[in-house]
Amino acid sequence: MIRAYKFLLRPTVRQAQALREMLVDHCCLYNGALQERRDAWRHRSKTSIRYGGQSAQLKEIRTFDPERQGRWSFSSQQATLRRLDKAFQAFFRRVRNGEKPGYPRFKGAGRFDTVTFPRDGDGCRWDSTPHDAQTRVRLQGVGHVRVHQHRPVRGRVKTISVKREGHRYVVLSCDNVPAEPLPATGAVVGIDLGVTHFLTTSNGEHLANPRFLNAAAEELAAAQRHLATFPQRTKRRTKAHRAAARKVAKIHAKIRRRRLDHAHKTALTLVRDHDAIAHERLNTAGMTRTPRPQPDPEQPGVFLPNQRAAKAGLNRSILDAGWGVFLAILANKAESAGRTVIGVNPRNTSRTCPDCGHVAKENRITQPKFQCTACGMTANADHVAALNILNRAGLALCDAA
Question: What is the pTM of this model?
Answer without folding.
Answer: 0.85
